[in-house]
């Protein structure tokens, strides 16, 4: 704002600032309402030559699982006034997108222990007590499963969600995981995945398509900027 346009009255200046702050707050907390008001309403427009139709809604992806809900008329309504039972001649189908919130669960790994009560392990070469080894884990003795680590990594690096926000999201489930803990998870995951990354980098560098695109004379991208 231009200083020459600011009023000399201090109280009036404070009133202007409060009005601006309230307007900004309205935009922040009423984003959906404001966007809905600004969105153009598409209706049919009748013109002398023809009638323009509304744009068709893009169908939902076929790979999504479907849960069928049948909404039928009452049994007494399936009889005509003449007394004849109505015959089903078809159906109308509509689809809506339903999102199920993330489900959090605890994996309890139970390993039974076995011992010989006859010789108490004296005759055994493997020790007195036998127990199965733990399955391979991304972070040995860690709290997070591979699914949890994948969830945090996707939210952090693919969706751009900060770790402190992920901590608050998990807190809604009653789970307290500090940001520092998730940060250490990501560091350990990066070390675990380094071998896979090196293999992928070698595959990319050996690809003829990538080579021709990056190093051809018509490309504006210099090889020094390719950090594969």
Keywords:
single chain, 228 residues, mainly alpha, two-stranded antiparallel sheet, 4 strands
Backbone structural class: mainly alpha
Shape: extended
- Order the strands across the largest sheet as they lie in space: 1-2
Give the radius of gyration. Answer: 32 Å
Strand content: under 5%
| Largest sheet features | 2 strands, antiparallel
Helix content: 25-40%
Mean pLDDT metric? 80
SSE sequence, one letter per element:
HHEEEEHHHHH
Low-confidence stretches: 217-228
| Number of beta strands | 4
Number of helices: 7
3D architecture notes:
This protein is mainly α. It has a domain at 143-197. The protein is 37% helix and 4% strand. It has 7 helices and 4 strands. The protein has helices at residues 10-29, 31-38, 146-158, 163-171, 179-192, 194-205, 208-215; strands at 45-46, 51-52, 114-115, 129-130. The strands form 2 sheets. The chain has a two-stranded antiparallel ribbon with strand order 1-2. A two-stranded antiparallel sheet has the order 3-4. Strand 1 and strand 2 (51-52) form a beta hairpin. Helix 4 packs across helix 5 (179-192). It is extended. Mean pLDDT is 80; it is low at 217-228.
């Amino acid at each position: 704002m231009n200083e020459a346009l600011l009023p000399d009255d201090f109280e009036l200046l404070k009133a202007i600032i409060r009005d601006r702050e309230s307007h900004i707050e309205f935009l922040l907390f009423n984003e959906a309402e404001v966007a809905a008001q600004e969105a153009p309403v598409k209706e049919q427009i009748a013109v002398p030559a023809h009638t323009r139709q509304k744009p068709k809604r893009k169908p939902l992806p076929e790979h999504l699982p479907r849960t069928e809900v049948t909404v039928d008329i009452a049994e007494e309504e399936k009889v005509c006034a003449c007394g004849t039972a109505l015959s089903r001649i078809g159906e109308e189908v509509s689809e809506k997108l339903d999102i199920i919130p993330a489900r959090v669960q605890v994996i309890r790994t139970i390993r039974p222990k076995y011992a010989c009560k006859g010789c108490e392990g004296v005759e055994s070469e493997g020790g007195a007590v036998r127990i199965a080894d733990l399955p391979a884990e991304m972070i040995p003795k860690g709290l997070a499963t591979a699914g949890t680590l994948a969830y945090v990594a996707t939210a952090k690096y693919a969706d751009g969600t900060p770790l402190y926000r992920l901590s608050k999201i998990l807190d809604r489930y009653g789970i307290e995981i500090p940001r520092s803990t998730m940060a250490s998870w990501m560091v350990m995951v990066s070390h675990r995945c380094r071998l896979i990354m090196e293999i992928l980098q070698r595959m990319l560098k050996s690809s003829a398509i990538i080579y021709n695109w990056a190093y051809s004379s018509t490309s504006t991208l210099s090889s020094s900027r390719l950090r594969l």
